[in-house]
Structures are given as C-alpha cells and as structure tokens.
Write a structure and sequence with these properties.
Pfam families: FCD, GntR. One of its GO terms (molecular function) is DNA binding. This is GntR family transcriptional regulator. Keywords: DNA-binding, Transcription, Transcription regulation. It is built from 11 helices and 2 strands. The protein is mainly alpha-helical. It has 2 domains: 77 residues, Orthogonal Bundle (Arc Repressor Mutant, subunit A); 145 residues, Four Helix Bundle (Hemerythrin (Met), subunit A) (Up-down Bundle), CATH 1.20.120.530.
Length: 230
C-alpha cells in the first residue's frame, strides 16, 4: 500500500467512526452498505472494505453475510486497541469516555505499583532510575523528549510487576493519551512537578513500601485527572 493509499484509508476510517459517533448509532444497529459508504466518502469500495476489515478485526463492527454491516451489539467486546486507533486518527473521546479510561488506568496503575514494590529486582530499579535521570536532563535540554520518557517511566513500573498481561492491558491507554501528553509536558513547570512525583514513586518501590507506593501513585494519577477536569 502506497503512502497516498494509507492516507486515504486513514481519512475514510476517521470519517466512518466520526459518522457512527456523531449519529449515535446504537449497539447492534445496521450501518450503511459498502456502496453507500463508498459514495458518501467518495472512495472506491476497496478502500471501504479495507476500513471495515480493520474495524471488524477490533470487534468494533461486524459484517453479516447477506445482511449488512452492524455496530457490535456487545460494546464490552470491542478491543481496547480502538482507544489507540481513535487517537491516531485524531478523533477526540467524549468526556465521559475519557473519564472511564482514566478510571480504568487508575485501577491498573495503583495495582501495578503495589506489585512492582513487591517484585522489583535490582535491574528493575536501575531501569527506573535511569529513566528518571533522563527525564530531568530532558526538561533542561530536550523538552520534546519528555512525553516519551513519561511513557517509558510508567511502562518500567509495569515491567517491574513481571506480569506481561498487565503491560498489554495498560498499553492502549498510553497510546490513546499520546496526543494529550505532548501539550501537557510542553510546560517545564508541569514536567518538573511530574518527575518529582516520579522520584517519590521510585523511592516507594525501592523501599518496597506498599502503603507509600499506593498513596503516591494515587496522588500522581489524581494530578492528571485534575488537570483534565475529571
């Protein structure tokens, strides 16, 4: 697939998801046909089929032979990867959906730091310390690197749990928030405050102090929630 074809597919996918969200299709509701979608978005049916294949693979849509295209009737079965996909397509989540995502992230993060405090190895500690130091350096010399280092910091905590499924569960939430982290960390004051909290988190993990770990991570997530008015 050429770059132009990829861009056409991405635009069409964004347009289809936007149509579904704006018109508030209900779970299990039938969508326009391939032909109708191709005409609406002024693209070939091959592009529409490619878009439908991706969304069906994420269990967002379902194609029923000799019947049509339907929004998944069971929203809980839709893949978490749709969160990352919508972000990549520059589609904004509703405030309600964003609040739900942050609530789920809080649950995962708080549980993860407890496990990390219990299970961390010396290698895990060195990894986290290295990221914290690089974060400090980036604030002063390469602020554009801070969002990626924030992602690395949080993923290093999940690695310290030694639970791959937890890492896989949380990854879509961070991919989803990538576009929001860029403006958030463009402010040096916010970046410094964030890394000071990272140091407290590291300290709690190093001390294997579960109560402290739980508290500092809850406060850290709470700061983000407050920033976004959640």
């Amino acid at each position: 697939m050429t770059k132009e074809q990829e861009q056409t597919t991405a635009r069409t996918m964004a347009a289809l998801v936007r149509l579904i969200e704006e018109r508030k299709y209900a779970p299990g509701e039938r969508l326009p046909s391939e032909r109708e979608l191709a005409e609406r978005f002024d693209v070939g049916r091959g592009v529409v089929r490619e878009v439908l294949s991706v969304l069906e693979g994420l269990r967002y849509l379902e194609r029923k032979p000799n019947s049509g295209i339907y929004l998944n009737e069971a929203p809980e079965r839709i893949s978490l990867e749709t969160l990352a996909l919508f972000s990549n397509l520059n589609l904004d989540l509703s405030k309600e959906r964003l609040a739900e995502a942050m609530e789920a992230r809080r649950i995962l993060e708080v549980q993860a730091i407890v496990l990390a405090a219990q299970r961390r190895t010396e290698e895990d500690l060195l990894d986290i310390k290295n990221i914290v130091q690089r974060f400090d350096d980036a604030i002063e010399h390469a602020l554009e690197d801070v969002p990626e280092l924030d992602y690395q910091f949080h993923m290093s905590i999940f690695r310290a749990t030694h639970n791959l499924v937890l890492m896989q569960l949380v990854t879509p939430f961070y991919l989803m928030s990538e576009n929001r982290r860029l403006p958030f960390f463009s402010d040096k004051k916010r970046s410094r405050a964030s890394n000071e909290q990272h140091k407290l988190i590291l300290e709690a993990i190093e001390e294997q102090n579960i109560d402290k770990a739980h508290q500092v991570m809850s406060e850290h997530i709470g700061r983000v929630e407050k920033h976004y008015g959640l």
